[in-house]
Amino acid sequence: MASGRGSNFTACVEAIRKKKLPIQILALVSDNPGAKALESAKSFQIPTKVLDFAKYEPKRPTTRICSSIWRNSRRTLL
């Protein structure tokens, strides 16, 4: 998840490419449609999803929404 520049996201992608981080990024989720991190993800050919959390109940929407995305990915995520 990212809502801004995505410097941590980019660092993770670079570490993965250098085989220093043994994970796979399946998608980048953001609540900010203008987040630069989304552009970075697209440049790395990583799927993106923008979620408008204002449309959901205020109680823990992130957990429910992300759980649904993760279940649909059929992958184990940390």
- How many E strands? 2
Rg, rounded, reads 13 Å
Provide mean pLDDT, rounded.
80
Biggest sheet, spatial arrangement of strands = 1-2
Relative strand content: 5-15%
The percent of residues in helical segments reads 40-55%
Compact description:
This protein is mainly α and 78 residues long.
Structure overview:
The protein is mainly alpha-helical and 78 residues long. 41% of the residues lie in helices and 8% in strands. It is built from 3 helices and 2 strands. It has helices spanning 7-17, 36-43, 61-73; strands at residues 28-30, 48-50. Strands 1-2 form a two-stranded parallel ribbon. β1, α2 and β2 form a beta-alpha-beta unit. The radius of gyration is 13 Å and the shape is globular. The model has no long low-confidence stretch (mean pLDDT 80).
Layout of SSEs?
Blueprint: H1 7-17, E1 28-30, H2 36-43, E2 48-50, H3 61-73
Parallel strand pairs: 1-2
Considering the chains and any ligands shown, give keywords for the structure.
single chain, mainly alpha, two-stranded parallel sheet, 3 helices, 8% strand
